[in-house]
Structure to design on (292 residues):
């Protein structure tokens, strides 16, 4: 049975937007903009998995005025890496991330003042180029959790696992802030890793990159200067478009960058049951109202 599924895109000062996807044979489905700045469209979809994107008339300074550009949903929770399409899953007529069932939410975890933190890069955790064992996946970390317990570790700080370009990176070039890095495994496998950590009394902290994004992040294509500083605040320490936490949209009573990053912080805590966020480049973020 098909159900109406709503797709939305926040682009308050863009003239037009359209939804495209495998469900429309990649033909435009027009979207209507509300007074709240969101374009919306509803599509009848059966339960299943679908790929989609948006088309929008860009307001970014590096393209022609009102030029149509294709973008991934900035709030997409999964990405098909080869095609760079967003992925949406429908079950019982509702959007879902996956069907993972948490097992260890009731296990006690250590307080802040007792943490022994192990900083971990998923991609090469198993031990360097000469390591004869498989490495680079969430499941491979689970295989060594008991070893970390024996070391006395009771917290793991994961270097960024948000979806980035390609399959090999430290993760400090985030393109999609709600999607997990597909080369490490599925969303369910990441949740299983966090769950297994909790089962052993290990807290999981996420390395959050909120000073900047990678240059092809969808927000840069929609309306660059709405979310970012036009020019770097500090050219010596510039790694990509820098979020503008000072900019306030009086018409919609919102700080756009603060709302977007606030949404992603809440998402990672609520959806992935993470136990803390390590803010990268806090000095470059430099906005104490937002950090507070």
């Amino acid at each position: 049975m098909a159900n109406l599924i709503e797709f939305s895109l926040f682009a308050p000062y863009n003239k037009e937007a359209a939804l495209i996807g495998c469900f429309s044979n990649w033909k435009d489905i027009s979207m209507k903009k509300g007074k709240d700045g969101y374009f919306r469209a509803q599509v009848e979809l059966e339960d299943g998995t679908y790929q989609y994107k948006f088309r929008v008339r860009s307001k970014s300074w590096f393209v022609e005025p009102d030029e149509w550009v294709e973008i991934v949903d900035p709030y997409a929770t999964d990405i098909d890496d080869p095609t760079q399409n967003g992925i949406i899953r429908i079950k019982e007529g509702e959007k879902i991330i996956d069907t993972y069932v948490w097992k260890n939410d009731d296990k006690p975890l250590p307080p802040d003042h007792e943490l022994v933190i192990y900083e971990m890069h998923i991609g090469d955790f198993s031990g360097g180029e000469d390591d004869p064992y498989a490495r680079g996946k969430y499941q491979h970390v689970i295989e060594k959790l008991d070893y970390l317990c024996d070391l006395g570790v009771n917290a793991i700080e994961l270097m960024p696992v948000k979806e980035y370009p390609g399959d090999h990176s430290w993760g400090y070039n985030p393109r999609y802030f709600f999607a997990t890095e597909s080369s490490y495994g599925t969303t369910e496998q990441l949740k299983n890793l966090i769950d297994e950590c909790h089962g052993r009394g290990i807290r999981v902290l996420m390395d959050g990159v909120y000073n900047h994004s990678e240059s092809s992040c969808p927000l840069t294509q929609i309306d660059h200067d709405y979310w970012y500083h036009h020019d770097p605040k500090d050219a010596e320490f510039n790694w990509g478009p820098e979020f503008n936490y000072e900019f306030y949209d009086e018409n919609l009573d919102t700080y756009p960058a603060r709302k977007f990053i606030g949404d992603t912080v809440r998402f990672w805590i609520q959806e992935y049951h993470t136990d803390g966020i390590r803010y990268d480049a806090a000095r470059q973020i430099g906005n104490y109202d937002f950090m507070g």
Observations:
- The radius of gyration is 20 Å.
- Residues 173 and 214 are 5 Å apart (CA to CA).
